[in-house]
Amino acid sequence: MIRYILKRLFTMIFVLLGVTLLIFTIMWYCPGDPARSLLSDDATEEQIEELREEMGLNEPFFVQFFDYVVKAVVHHDLGESYQTKIDVSTEIIQRFPNTVKVATLAVFIAALFGIPLGVIAAVNQSTWKDNTAMAVSLVGVSMPGFWFGLMLSLLFALKLRWLPASGFAGPKYLILPCVAIGIGGVGMISRQMRSSMLEVIRQDYVVTARAKGQVEWKVIYVHAFRNSLIPVITQIGSMFGHQLGGAMVAETVFSIPGLGTYMVNAIKARDYPAVRGSVLYVALVFALVMLAVDLLYAFIDPRIKAQYSNKKKRGGKKIG
Amino acid sequence: MADQIKPKEKSGKKKESMLRITLRRLLKNKLAAAGFLVFLLFVLMAVFAPLIAPYDYTEQNLYQTLAGPSAEHLCGTDEVGRDILSRLIYGGRYSLQIGVLSVVLAAGIGIPLGAIAGFYGKRMDDLLMRLMDVFQAIPNLMLAIALSATLGAGVGNCILALGITSMPAFARMTRASILNIRGMEYVEAAKSTNSNDFHTIVRHVLPNAMAPLLVQSTMNVATAILNAAALSFIGLGVQPPLPEWGAMLSIGRTYIRDHWHMCVFPGLTIFLNVMALNVFGDGLRDALDPRMKS
């Protein structure tokens, strides 16, 4: 198991290096001159050139890239924001908890409604309950989250005045954005849960449980449910990882001071260090979340745990 | 005697093609057929927009700005008095074009890459899949936003950004399908007849790996429409005054407090299109699933 974790961490280093190179290349080709945009309109060409030199923008691509990687790895320095003149990592660390809060609650809402919906649909396959549950999930999957957010804010904030339309000053500010982001997740999780559950309830051990005379709710919740959760957990993990970087539009709609808003503003202002830093940070967290999800398998599914220990006993080298 | 004739009759029966079976199953699935019809309707409306739309999408009426829905303007008018329904009809030209062409681009790059990785395996597979890992380590929308910032706004750049973003999914799916297929007897048979690799992949391997890719493409058009709308919404995709649905929502957001119609109708149009594609995609998956074969 430890060998597997180390292997994954080792691979992650290369993936993150690749992400850095990719985002560095994308930003390198971004139009506009950061030095020129930082100075006022009446700045002379000499002043602009001086600033370019000072910022290291005249160095060749790979020199700048190597410099960036060394600073990021050795000094945890992601550069300084062109806009705010504050260290990018400091700003990211300040904003990241807000994004995590929104993502966690959104995924929680998605799982809270999506899992029961999927179970109901599977247990009552091809009945009106199944059709209704799947219709709800279809609406969830097809709904543009940011538009749903606008509609929620129109109804609950602007018309009924029950909840705030934007800002981030307390738990009630979280409700609308999290529901708006979570609706898509409800659809995805319920569909996954349904198909996974349908596969499991056809298994021999479920038939055996029924043949033994086990009551139906026990068959479903004790025998089938736990075993059908594994693919759903992967999806929840991946959804959480995506929400950390993908809820940018919803964050913008509700003016949440999270990483998404930070990146959107940075892109509009051509603040390259802020964009690079945000993407890199999200990629790192996303990779760690996916690793955690993989490890969680072992605790949920004894077969996977046994697979690791058998390989170890046999002295197997390759896992995964 | 009858026993002797029976097998002959059976073998004489014309074998139904996969395409025909799929179409028959799709037509049986009323929901999927409805989804396809709704999407087709939006496509036709976009194509024949000048004939269908009651007004031109640029026509302004400054005496009727921000007017609510009425018999004259079914979805109301915008901040410069343009008819929202007409703009939605014309807007399909941009939103649907981005949705479809970005998927064509993604499939056009992703499928060959996945086919090479799956067919050759070993180092080539490792190299290409690690490259895909890099792309997939960044959430799709985040990557699309970063690419759009570099490429600039506009329909073409939006297609490029979304196409590159969804390319790894196609590569991975093609690779997975080909890994299942490459050991099949007919592939071995093709190889043994000295068929070159390109011919084997294009003629024998890819056609048998197409089913999941077709479903993926349908679903991806829906996702691309959503992402294009999101990009335009934050000002990085198609720019106003072009009537792309996301761009219309972005403008409508400013007036949401008093003029709800500016936000509701563009959003509903996106929602209906995406739902139609999702329903059709679900039906297509069921129709192509060999386990459903009766």
* DSSP strand count of chain B: 0
Please estimate the helix content of chain A: over 70%
Shape of chain B: elongated
Order of helices and strands of chain B: HHHHHHHHHHHH
The tally of structural domains of chain B comes to 1
- The total of helices of chain A stands at 14
Rg of chain B, nearest Å: 24 Å
Characterize the structure shown:
Chain A has a domain at 93-302: MetI-like (MetI-like fold), CATH 1.10.3720. Chain A has 14 helices and no strands. Chain A has helices spanning 2-28, 34-38, 45-55, 61-75, 88-123, 128-142, 145-159, 172-200, 204-211, 216-246, 248-253, 259-268, 272-300, 302-314. The radius of gyration of chain A is 24 Å and the shape is flat. Chain B is mainly α. Chain B has one domain (29-43, 86-288): MetI-like (MetI-like fold, Orthogonal Bundle). Chain B is built from twelve helices and no strands. Chains A and B meet through helix 1, helix 6, helix 7, helix 10 and helix 11 of A and helix 6, helix 7, helix 10 and helix 12 of B.
Question: Could you give the topology of this structure?
Answer:
The complex is a heterodimer of chains A (320) and B (294).
Chain A: H1 2-28, H2 34-38, H3 45-55, H4 61-75, H5 88-123, H6 128-142, H7 145-159, H8 172-200, H9 204-211, H10 216-246, H11 248-253, H12 259-268, H13 272-300, H14 302-314
Chain B: H1 2-12, H2 18-28, H3 30-47, H4 49-52, H5 84-120, H6 122-136, H7 140-151, H8 155-181, H9 185-192, H10 197-233, H11 245-254, H12 261-288
Helix pairs in contact in B: 2-12, 3-5, 3-12, 5-6, 5-8, 5-10, 6-8, 7-8, 8-10, 9-10, 10-11, 10-12, 11-12
